[in-house]
Amino acid sequence: MVRTVKEDKALVYEDWKACIVPFVESAQLDPSDFTLDQYFAAKSLISSRSFQIDDYYGFGMVPLADLFNHKTDAEDVHFTSVSSHSDSDTDSSENIENRIDDHPDGDSLCQIQNESTVTSPEGDLSAADDTFSSNTEILEMIMVRDVKAGSEVFNTYGSMGNAALLHRYGFTEPDNPYNIVNIDLELVLQWSSSLFSSRHTRSRLSLWKRLHVSEFPNQQIDYFEISSDGEPEVELLKLISIILLPEKAYNEFDRSKVALTSNKKGIAWSEITERNKRLLLTESVRGGLLSLADIRERCYGLSSVEDDVEALEACPVTERKLYHSLVLRISERRILEKLRVYASVGSARVRSLGVCNGSTMRKKLQKR
User: Fold this and answer.
1) Three-state SS for 184?
2) Residue 184 phi, psi dihedral angles, 5° rounding
3) Which CATH number does the domain 159-368 belong to among 3.90.1420.10, 3.30.70.60, 3.10.50.30, 1.10.357.10?
4) Which end of the chain, C or N, has fewer beta carbons within 10 A?
5) Residue of 203, 74, 93, 232 lying closest to 151 (CA atoms)
6) What is the pLDDT of residue 63?
7) Domain-wise residue ranges, the chain
8) Residue 269's closest CA among 241, 232, 231, 233?
9) Phi then psi dihedrals of residue 182, to 5 deg
10) Residue 221 class from Cβ within 10 Å (0-12 exposed, 13-18 middle, 19+ buried)?
11) Which contiguous run of DSSP H or E holds residue 182?
């Protein structure tokens, strides 16, 4: 997270230097009104409060709409824009009042509307009236579920895990189903170098990259995602498999691009996908996953998951940064526990076990 924020700041600085500084000089503006700190502040407001309206507008900042808090997969409102050229968006004030009259109790209001005039370059804002001109569009705030009077109304900022929510918006959600853990390519190479020579690691990495580029020419991988269920993405399994191949098998594979799977059958490398990736779960690959889980776990320091849970329970409400950091740490470490189970007993068993804390998970693994 710290590294990502540093990278963000570097990119924002480049934008300021390339765009803002020349603009201030050419327009002969006061540089003190356009400092780097002020640009950071403005950029933070936009990035933390803008959201995707729809395919037409893309991302934007919407007055009043940014008052709504986020709830994953449980939003009460949805924002969209409708072209005034269609028949569905010609609501006048009378039509809106009629719809409100249909719901006098106010508890199950199906639709409320925020209307704003948007003019094209050739349009004239002063010409806009209650009937809306042909250049006017309506931004609708639509209730998608009933909300009781007095209850908070939620929007959604998208389907994001806690790391993305904390990075962009500054908060987390407990039991977020979109949580993931990233295992950097650097950590995989670190693990490989602890077992094999540098030459071995470089040659295996080179082959994996060639194969990956042949399938996905425009995709570069710097890290691998572990899903909330503890399942690693197929490219991580592929890389581990190549690293662990004995020299003879590696040379044969390099010539034929046919992998020997856990079923002792050959399969074309390009045919191994997310659906059938379990074919790669040989005993040695499972061991590699367990080792990588341990290496990734060390990134959190010496404290255990139980220590983090106790710290979260004792965290004052006012310590928002500490609270959300602990929520993120705990959610990621529990995914790593599921990764260990996945490597040991398979993905189907992971789902049946559900979310367990570190000590419970280790006891279950020891029994098996």
Assistant:
1) strand
2) -65, 145
3) 3.90.1420.10
4) C
5) 74
6) 82
7) 1-49, 51-157, 159-368
8) 241
9) -100, 135
10) middle
11) strand 181-184
Dig out the tokens for 296 from the structure.
């990734």
For the chain, the distance separating the N- and C-terminal CA atoms, rounded to the nearest angstrom, is 35
For residue 49, what pLDDT is reported?
82
**Six token digits for residue 180:** 């993931």
User: Of 187, 188, 232, 238, which Cα lies nearest the Cα of 212?
Assistant: 238
Element holding 34 (H helix, E strand)? none
Higher pLDDT, 130 or 167: 167
Return the closest-CA partner of residue 288 out of 368, 331, 344.
344
Residue-wise pLDDT for 187-224, tens only, equals 999 999 999 999 999 999 999 999 888 888 888 899 99
Instruction: Determine the Cα–Cα distance for residues 83 and 87; give it in Å rounded to an integer.
Output: 9
Rg (the chain; Cα; Å):
27
Q: Do 260 and 266 contact (CB within 8 A), yes or no?
A: yes
Cβ neighbours for 349, distance < 8 A, ≥ 6 positions apart? 341
Name residue, tokens 């933070």: 44
